[in-house]
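Exercise (ungraded).
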Amino acid sequence: MPPRLSAPARREQILDVALEVFANAGFHGASMNDVAEAAGVTKPVLYQHFDSKRDLFQALIEEVGNRLRNNIDKATAEATDGKSQTELGFRAYFRWVADDHDGFRLLFGSGSRRDDDFNDAVRKITEQSAKAIAPLIAVDIDESHRETLAHALVGLAEGASRRLVGLGKEFDPDEIAREVAALAWAGLRAVTPGARHQT
Amino acid sequence: MPPRLSAPARREQILDVALEVFANAGFHGASMNDVAEAAGVTKPVLYQHFDSKRDLFQALIEEVGNRLRNNIDKATAEATDGKSQTELGFRAYFRWVADDHDGFRLLFGSGSRRDDDFNDAVRKITEQSAKAIAPLIAVDIDESHRETLAHALVGLAEGASRRLVGLGKEFDPDEIAREVAALAWAGLRAVTPGARHQT
DNA sequence: ATGGGAACGTACCGAAGGGTAACCGGCGCG
DNA sequence: CGCGCCGGTTACCCTTCGGTACGTTCCCAT
């Protein structure tokens, strides 16, 4: 008979196990019973800690998002020039992906983007990343184009990560980060302003 | 009383309308009744043309995927050197996004990535895109790194598109394509091989 | 005109799953 | 010793939704 846990401990354990379950099966693919079973308890226990399935899932998104954001913020804070900011930012990102496969799949691979509520939560994260990237684009183009390119770079990292995580094999995040950062940095400096309608 | 349609015509109309419905609500968010109602018929009619909800959805993915692939293939076929291939490829991609918002959302935004079956279908598309991009990476690095970077570039276009489609406003695909292609091309040429473990 | 087949609607089934009411049992406290 | 608190379970409800059996209307061909 598994030992009883205190309420806060149980809550943490549920979050842990739910992350894995949802990452594997997706929000719709996993039932509350699945989560409960994986946690070694029964359904009503989940509802003592979370108001609803959506509530639980959103808590996970929030938590994982914070982990990601913290890592990147901490890393880029140490850099002064744009180039090393790019490097360190991507490095932090890929390191996070490398040791939080489940978190990555939860945010970017489990249909979180479909549901309006969840999509908002995920969007906040990508939006913030983009906002951090946008100033690195030196060329003189519209603000909206600059933001679009920033989002493109967020997608750059996401695309690479999806592939890497999808393969299931281990990978060296620093090596990938170096290449991707090089691509991004050189790419950013190559963008040229379009023909302006005269002002 | 709406006129009766011939079987092939009805099938096409269902596909049309289902694309819109699924793009808006996602696979799980839209019921067969929703689709039927939007098509102006009742549920059993859907099942006269498609074996199951999954079957219908998969047909949509297939169709949209083919449209995308054809556009890109046709565009890149006209190019000789890598640089213009890059340009024309991205241009075809963004043009497709610009006038098939629903298709884009279906493939890349409606949780198609979550379900194993659908994920395979979508993956085939990105995989092909990546395979087309990979040869453009000139630098001498591992095949696996090369493919990872190729997938990153697929994500680049996806990230930009997600933003553009999400904003809902119109945009000039050629202008975006020019910038993104410039970024990608210059970026690709800037990637350097890592320190080799000696051979 | 009259059969027949194709398109379509009505009404239903059954399973899955989110959520809840009520009960249970062990540990700590007076 | 007993009593109450709290983590936990059992058993259930109810809605949603994928899928289907069967009846009905309309058009076309002989």
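Further reading is listed at the end of the chapter. For now, observe: Chain A has a mean pLDDT of 93. The longest helix of chain A spans residues 53-77.
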